[in-house]
């Protein structure tokens, strides 16, 4: 899998995580699901928030590491080009 495809896939996972997080927050505060459904409503809201965080946090870290590696390669190529010019 190419690096651009990985970045695109990671962005999709980040988007899914944000949607799940917002959905859990919406169900918890605006629909008031725990009051209407009891313990089942609490579990549904907690699962939405938990899976949203599971999708969101690790992908951000991995995307940051990919971008740092790309920047490091760019800096090394730039230094090598400067040495070649001298």
Give a brief description.
This protein is an all-alpha fold and 86 residues long. It has helices spanning 3-29, 33-37, 39-85. The chain has one domain (3-85).
Which range best describes the helical content: under 10%, 10-25%, 25-40%, 40-55%, 55-70% or over 70%? Answer: over 70%
Strand percentage lies at under 5%
**Gyration radius, rounded:** 21 Å
- What class, by secondary structure content? mainly alpha
Low-confidence stretches: none
Please state the overall shape, judged from the principal axes of the Cα atoms. rod-shaped
Counting DSSP H or I runs of 4 or more residues, the number of helices is 3
Question: What is the string of SSEs from the N terminus onward?
Answer: HHH
Main beta sheet: strand number and arrangement?
Answer: none
Please give the domain count: 1
What is the average of the pLDDT values?
87
Beta strands, count: 0
Task: Please tell me about this protein's structure.
With 86 residues, the protein is mainly alpha-helical. The chain has one domain. It has 3 helices and no strands. The mean pLDDT is 87.
């Amino acid at each position: 899998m190419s690096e651009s495809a990985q970045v695109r896939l990671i962005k999709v996972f980040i988007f899914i995580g944000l949607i799940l997080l917002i959905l859990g927050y919406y169900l918890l505060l605006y629909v008031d699901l725990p009051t209407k459904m009891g313990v089942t409503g609490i579990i549904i809201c907690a699962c939405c928030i938990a899976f949203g965080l599971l999708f969101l946090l690790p992908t951000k870290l991995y995307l940051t590491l990919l971008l740092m590696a790309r920047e490091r390669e760019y800096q090394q190529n730039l230094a090598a080009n400067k040495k070649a010019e001298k």
